[in-house]
Design goal:
7-stranded antiparallel sheet, 150 residues, 31% strand, Chemotaxis protein chec, alpha+beta, 33% helix
Length: 150
Amino acid sequence: MDGEQLEELMRNIWDAMLLPEAPLEGAPPESCGEDYDLCACVDIVGAWNGVVSVECDEVLAREIARRMFGSEPGAIVEGDLMDAMREVANLIGGNVKGALAGGCALSLPRATRGSESLLLDGGQATACERAFTSEGRRLRVRILQEAEGR
């Protein structure tokens, strides 16, 4: 999967299931920085091995959770944030898996505050990355591929 395909996939998920009322704009990865409040990832294992990760700021995660669970903004608790982030990672990972040649499976998604602590063991290289903003809030999606022979 290349960057354009990842961007199209993300826009489709965004418009159909996440926040269609808040347009998703592409942004250069360096413009979104490295520090994100929340991260979720899902491993893809089998014929292709890697990680799909989604990171965003807390304001955006709260808005996604609010819409996903039909809650009032003040009713979102920490568990809701983590559940929403895991679901977003699962949606993206499932679509990436579907674009790969067969023989792959998804792990259960995981979420945390921060980002790098969720990535497998650091032995992956970035295969594809796209950064986005939505009403000034930051989001980054990365596909990390495990090194050959690992």
